[in-house]
Specification:
The protein has 128 residues and is mainly β. The chain is built from no helices and eleven strands.
């Protein structure tokens, strides 16, 4: 049983920063692709960023590129999302996701359906 737990959400003013953490149980964390997705009220869940298990290659949604950074500490089985220059439109519940699959296409990393393990989410609210 793989468990995913996010922490670090909260309320921040426009232009501020937050760092989310996601800890994954299980023995094969270094083999997992890790992703962050978000869902704003009344909207569909959307891709934010992902880091591949091998080599640490990262991908970002255009809306967060240059402001958000994903990183991981395999020894601590934790992935981080550093969010800088936050905007009101970043307000959402942020979800961490893990997958032990090997994706054939880069596009596969962007789809929530390809991640079988999910946390409960952590709320990020950016005030204007």
């Amino acid at each position: 049983q793989v468990q995913v737990v996010e922490t670090g959400g909260g309320l921040v003013q426009t232009g501020g920063s937050l760092r989310l953490s996601c800890t994954v149980s299980g023995r094969s964390f270094s083999n997992y692709a890790m992703g962050w997705f978000r869902q704003a009220a009344g909207k569909e869940r959307e891709f934010v960023t992902t880091m591949r298990s091998s080599g640490g290659t990262t991908h970002y949604a255009d809306s967060v590129s240059g402001r958000f950074t994903i990183s991981r500490d395999n020894a601590k089985k934790t992935v981080f999302l550093q969010m800088n220059s936050l905007k009101p439109e970043d307000t959402a519940k942020y979800y961490c996701a893990a997958s032990s699959r090997t994706f054939d296409l880069t596009d596969d990393y962007y789809h929530a359906a390809n991640y079988p393990y999910w946390g409960q989410g952590t709320q990020v609210t950016v005030s204007s």
